[in-house]
Write the structure tokens for this entry.
Amino acid sequence: MLDCAIIGGGPAGLAAGLYATRGGLKHVTLFEMGLPGGQITQSSEIENYPGFFDHSKTGMDFMDTWQEQCFHFGLKHEMKKIQHITKNDKYFTLTFENSETAQAKTVIVCTGSTPKKAGFKGEDDFFGKGVSTCATCDGFFYKNKPVAVLGGGDTALEEAFYLSNICSEVYVIHRRDTFRAAPSTIERVQRKENIHLLTDTTIEEVFGDAMGVGGIRIKNKEGNVSALDVPGIFVFVGHNVNNEVLKDENGHFICEVSEWGQVVVDLSMKTSLAGLFAAGDVRIEAPKQVVCAAGDGATAALQVISYIQEHA
């Protein structure tokens, strides 16, 4: 019997594991199919986490120390995929992909979200062949070449700035006439000479051949269609909530979620189901920042400790 099962190994999950184990819980397991760390491991640098301002360190470097610290205090990591969660009067049952099960007194869901697709023609056909959602992963392939970035939020502009240090030209394509990013981010991008902002513009199609992307066709608000000769397009248009684990065998959510599938929690990260908590990007109104996800995880773990004490 687990005291706490943590599903998802990003900043929220690791912080939850740290606080749960240091708080005295003996049987805490993190279920994460890959290497713990989350999406931040794909970042080229971290400059907005308090106390961490080393530009020579990547997101992977940043999260390595988290793993070491958490495992030091007794957090266990199992690479098992959980299909769904159920609860009887007292305990939770976790059903794994191979139909095996485990029981837990409490569960913290930290499964985060994944990038959305934009839906333009050719996006799926050329994904991994010129269409990417990770500048840090694939930017080097376009060194000294022009690329396009689709999106208007913080992520899109931050990744465009990152790419501008590698690529010859960066064309930022946004369907609106204003950006949703922080003012400081917009100003930094506007100052970069090789970043070109194409507003009120959409992507009609990405085209190419067996070798990969050859270019994209874009349309402005007047309806004029033109081509950009770029071998790479990076898409940053939002995220899908990874909430499948919270659906029962009939496809119904076991706790309250928003119309967009985000888990409804209170300030204590409590869901509508007693003993079930959610933290990080999977919850409503998530700021999608590492420091916030870590705070969520810590809060959820502290609430787990209190819950177990109350129901002992």
Notes: The first strand starts at residue 2 and ends at 7. Residues 85 and 94 are 5 Å apart (CA to CA). The chain has a mean pLDDT of 93. The longest helix spans residues 290-310.
